[in-house]
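Supplementary Methods. Inverse-folding protocol.

Structures were first reduced to a discrete structure-token string of length 186. This string, shown here, constituted the complete conditioning input.
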């Protein structure tokens, strides 16, 4: 009788320990979790127009990846390249003859009244507001303002611009803007 009770208590203890510990994660589950984490980081970098950092981070992931990750990495790199194309054209347009001005330039944490973009490069915008010039990193610009600038400065004639901007909007959480752009590609 005693060995039976010891076995039952042992089985209950083992079952409880397994339930509390959780099932071991499969290799596929671990890969999915890792790709989800990398994807979230890429979303943040793309949303803040830090495309060089996104590309470098993806290259680091690719160097240690296996065949199962290659397709995902290729799709992520394509997203970065589409958005990079829009950013480069937007920078070129912002440095052109026509200036982008708005009554309220939206930043992530505040707004700049009566603002005009005087210049832009890969890292920042030079914004004139209240008679003063301010360096504004792309990462500080609200994604809705990037969308507004891109549509105002680039227009919507080029399919490549619409696709790149749609990818940017999707990665930035601007779903209705992305849907509108993607539907215009049909």
């Amino acid at each position: 009788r005693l060995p039976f009770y010891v076995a039952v208590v042992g089985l209950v203890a083992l079952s409880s320990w397994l339930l509390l510990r959780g099932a071991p994660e499969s290799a596929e589950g671990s890969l999915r979790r890792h790709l989800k984490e990398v994807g979230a980081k890429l979303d943040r970098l793309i949303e803040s127009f830090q495309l060089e950092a996104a590309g470098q981070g993806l290259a680091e992931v690719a160097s240690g990846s296996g065949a199962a990750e290659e397709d995902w990495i290729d799709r992520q790199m394509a997203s970065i390249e589409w958005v990079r194309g829009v950013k480069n054209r937007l920078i070129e347009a912002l440095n052109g003859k026509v200036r982008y001005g708005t009554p309220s330039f939206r930043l992530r944490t505040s707004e700049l009244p009566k603002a005009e973009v005087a210049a832009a490069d890969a890292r920042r915008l030079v914004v004139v507001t209240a008679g003063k010039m301010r360096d504004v990193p792309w990462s500080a610009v609200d994604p809705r303002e990037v969308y507004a600038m891109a549509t105002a400065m680039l227009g919507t004639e080029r399919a490549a611009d619409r696709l790149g901007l749609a990818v940017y909007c999707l990665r930035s959480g601007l779903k209705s803007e992305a849907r509108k752009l993607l539907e215009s590609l049909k």
